[in-house]
UniProtKB/TrEMBL annotation, chain A:
This is Serine/threonine-protein phosphatase with EF-hands. SMART domains: EFh, IQ, PP2Ac. Belongs to the PPP phosphatase family. It comes from the Eukaryota. Residues 511-546, 594-629, 634-669 form the EF-hand domain.
From TrEMBL, chain B:
GO terms for cellular component: organelle. It comes from Takifugu rubripes (Japanese pufferfish). The keyword Repeat applies. This is EF-hand domain-containing protein. GO terms for molecular function: calcium ion binding. Keywords: Repeat. Residues 84-111 form the EF-hand domain.
């Protein structure tokens, strides 16, 4: 133990010192192991929740597609509302080459002014302005997008680059996700784009971060300035249906109150025109997500890429596959590769019992599927989805990516075959956050590169980019944007990330509260309010399907009662609704908490002028749509009563943001300005 | 001598030690039977040998009532680990240079590999001076778990 005394004897001193060393070493080893454990499960929580969100979006989009393709009349004008969204006919105003000229820039505007064709001084003005958090005027954004569209139309689906003309090419994982600081840091460290420093950015420029517009403007502006030295691949977030959930739509509408809609529509167009792959020296293939066993580079190079406005806009016949997606949803996560240490890789081949739950997404009227769309289009769609959405896995073969809900998991054999077939050496892809910013798998044949540092949380991960020269040996450069001036120790970073992971997880629990409580009660025969830990874990996994180590996480989530049981109500006690409850029936409240994001998306689609207001009539239609989506019966009269009661000023319109605020989960302690404490049980 | 902090001043650690102690405080008077003290110590993740435990008890339970008081136990539990690092801190600076510590832990005892050593330093320290008193209790009682 530590019971050591200092005697004068030198030999004894030495002996004591060795003893001390042994003890310190044991403690450090144990501590490090625990820290690594925490880091791992924190990561798993973030990733599970992220992918669950993607699944939700796919489900919602597939529902839209289904409605549009199959239902002509649903209690009113349901499909009409979404048809505009799904198949946006281009606004003729935007087709006019000079429409931006009609937008005047007021004298009072102090931001950067651009003159086309762009020059280096325009770029400097943009960089300077964005560092100062200025916003570019809508007129210039529109013009920039017009010019970008014109340029992209000339570009092939697959860009071929050569290192013979330049010293080195820099490949950024893309996945900047609106994190302007990361882009600026890359430019600072590696140099601005130029003939000397050509760049490839590998998709996912927008969503999540606060500065998607600025990131996009800078990248497009450099593309226009140096079309030969700046290359952009499309990512799965360059998709207007993804943007609805993940923030880009909102960001544009907030920054551009007047021309937001036009800007969004142009973005949508430009996104669909982005090249889908880049090949360096015929040896290195760069795509955003990955490949599948169906991937055909020759076909990909000839298809009409702009037809695929959104990977979430399912061709008619593929809607059918959704039912397959549903049944295999239990298969869950396949960790492509271990995200930090090769030594601790484990395989996930857990067979789960099929889960029956009525409230999971259901497609009504599936039987009534009619006339399939031309197979050609479907093939194009599938090829692009696989490129944008797939992840590598360590096991052989190729299977649907049920954890994300879209794309494939592709094994090393799939990689090897494709590379061999086309004489390639290496596949570089992004799409997955990695702790170190990059990772190798498939015996080094696949590199994942991710360029948004602190993606999940301050300190959660580093960002990285790759440089390749003529010898085609990739070299990695890592970085991390730091807001605090002090360097944090690993312990402090793990603690911070862990804290916010548990916050997110508790929110998730709360939004599924009634369903979970029902599950708990099934085991609580005597109404003691307690169940066994194993039962608790079982209910959570069945209800949330996040594939998490619930027993390990238990001390952070629920209080222990006596006899190896947990007080199951305690896992909801840190949370409460955003504002005092609006009077709604319990099953309506459940749906609202759980599908708040989906409902918000539908509301904002209906709210064409983005005023934040919808009419009572529209509010009711949304519910008809939505009750069909959920397959739950919601009483029409209850909806009418609800609509009337929340029309506070009785003018026939509803502020839906205010309404939804009541169904946002907040952390009780936040209000009182207290640190978030864990539930500490008596153990 | 620059000692920034004394070990165990962290309230989390105190709580943890107290909680373990109180579990065996059957009379609710902040005392634990000498015979149970080993269990308390073990439950806190410390594994002394029998003779060492014996010495420890002798030191904290000096009044020979057969019971050990929390007031004695708590400071002993938090301060003793500090001795370990103090043994290494020959000049009594209050901190160890990372070089010093590295030399020590990679050569003595059950030596650390280079990798382990780097991990330890990034996990616990933000500069070259390791003020061991600051995180000794964290290392041993790990208040986060």
């Amino acid at each position: 133990m530590w019971h050591l005394c200092c005697y004068g004897d030198a030999r004894k001193d030495e002996k004591t010192a060795i003893k001390a060393a042994v003890l310190i070493q044991r403690w450090v080893r144990r501590y490090m192991a625990r820290l690594e454990m925490r880091r791992r499960y924190t990561w798993n929580i973030f990733q599970s929740i992220e992918y669950a969100g993607e699944q939700d979006q796919l489900q919602l989009s597939s529902f839209f597609s289904f409605m549009l393709n199959n239902v002509t009349h649903l209690n009113g004008n349901g499909p009409d509302l979404i048809s505009k969204l799904m198949d946006s006919a281009s606004d003729p105003w935007l087709e006019n080459e000079n429409c931006y000229n009609l937008v005047t820039v007021p004298e009072t505007y102090t931001g950067p002014r651009l003159s086309f064709p762009l020059s280096v001084s325009d770029m400097n003005a943009l960089l300077g302005a964005f560092k100062e958090q200025q916003t570019l005027h809508a007129r210039y954004v529109l013009q920039l997008l017009h010019e970008t569209r014109k340029l992209l139309k000339q570009m092939p689906n697959i860009i071929h680059l050569s290192t013979t003309y330049t010293k080195e090419i820099t490949i950024c994982g893309g996945d900047l996700h609106g994190q302007l600081d990361d882009l600026l840091l890359i430019f600072y460290k590696n140099g601005l784009p130029s003939a000397e420093t050509p760049y490839v950015f590998n998709g996912d420029f927008v969503d999540r971060g606060k500065n998607s517009v600025e990131v996009m403007v800078l990248l497009f502006a450099y593309l226009l300035l140096y079309p030969d030295y700046m290359h952009l691949n499309r990512g799965n977030h360059e998709d207007h249906l993804m943007n609805l959930r993940y923030g880009f739509t909102k960001e544009v509408m907030q920054k551009y109150k007047i021309h937001g809609c036009e800007i969004l529509q142009l973005f949508q167009d430009v996104f669909s025109l982005l090249p889908i792959a880049t090949i360096i020296d015929g040896k290195i293939l760069i795509v955003h997500g990955g490949i599948s066993d169906q991937t055909d580079l020759d076909f990909l190079s000839i298809l009409e890429r702009h037809k695929i406005k959104s990977a979430l806009r399912f061709p008619q016949t593929t809607v059918e596959q959704l039912s397959i997606g549903q049944s295999s949803r239990q298969v869950k996560r396949i960790r492509s590769t271990d995200s930090s240490r090769p030594s601790s890789s484990r395989s996930h081949n857990i067979q789960r019992t099929p889960h029956q739950s009525g409230s999971v997404f259901q497609l009504p009227f599936l039987d009534s599927l009619s006339a399939p769309s031309p197979p050609q289009h479907e093939q194009e769609w599938k090829q692009i989805v696989d490129i944008l959405w797939s992840d590598p896995k360590t096991l052989k073969g190729c299977c649907p990516n049920t954890f994300r809900g879209g794309g494939c998991y592709f094994g090393p054999d799939v990689t090897r075959r494709l590379l061999l077939q086309h004489g390639l050496q290496l596949l570089i892809r992004s799409h997955e956050c990695k702790q170190e910013g990059y990772e190798l798998c498939h015996s080094g044949q696949v590199i994942t590169i991710f360029s948004a540092s602190n993606y999940y949380e301050e300190g959660s991960n580093r960002g990285a980019y790759i440089k390749v020269g003529r010898e085609l040996m990739p070299r990695f450069y890592q970085y991390q944007v730091s807001r605090s001036t002090r360097k944090l120790t690993l312990t402090q970073r793990v603690r911070a990330a862990e804290g916010s992971a548990f916050r997110a997880l508790k929110e998730k629990l709360f939004t599924h509260r009634s369903e979970l409580i029902l599950g708990f009660q099934e085991y609580d025969h005597n109404n003691t309010g307690t169940i066994l830990v194993s039962e608790w874990a079982q209910v959570l996994e069945t209800g949330l399907r996040l594939d998490l180590p619930w027993r390990t996480l238990r001390p952070h989530l629920v209080r222990l009662a006596s006899g190896g049981r947990v007080d199951y109500q305690s896992c909801f006690e840190d949370m409460e609704p955003g504002v005092p409850q609006v009077e709604v029936t319990p099953n309506l409240a459940d749906a609202l908490f759980r599908y708040r994001k989906d409902i918000e998306i539908i509301f904002s689609i209906i709210d064409k002028d983005q005023s934040g207001l919808i009419s009572i009539e529209e509010f009711r239609h949304t519910w008809h749509l939505f009750s069909a989506h959920l397959g739950i019966k919601i009483d029409n009269r209850a909806i009418d009563d609800l609509a009337r009661s929340i029309d506070f000023n009785k003018d026939g319109s509803i502020d839906f943001n205010e309404f939804l605020e009541a169904f946002r989960v907040v952390h009780k302690l936040d209000n009182k300005d207290q640190p978030v404490n864990r539930i500490i049980g008596k153990e | 001598m620059a000692i920034r902090n004394t070990a165990g001043s962290c309230p989390h650690v105190h709580k943890k030690i107290k909680a373990a102690f109180e579990a065996f405080d059957y009379q609710s008077n902040h005392t634990v039977d000498v015979r149970s003290i080993g269990t308390v110590v073990y439950s806190l993740g410390c594994f002394p040998s029998r003779p060492n435990l014996h010495d420890f008890v002798a030191e904290v339970g000096e009044d020979h009532t057969g019971y050990i008081h929390l007031d004695k136990f708590l400071p002993a539990m938090t301060k003793k680990p500090l001795m370990l690092f103090k043994v290494l801190d020959k000049e009594k600076k209050g901190y160890l240079e990372s070089e010093e510590l590295t030399k020590y832990l990679t050569q003595e005892g059950e030596p650390f590999s280079q990798g382990e050593m780097e991990e330890m330093l990034t996990a616990l320290s933000d500069n070259d001076h390791i003020y061991y008193a600051d995180y000794i209790s964290q290392l041993i009682f790990d208040p986060d778990t």
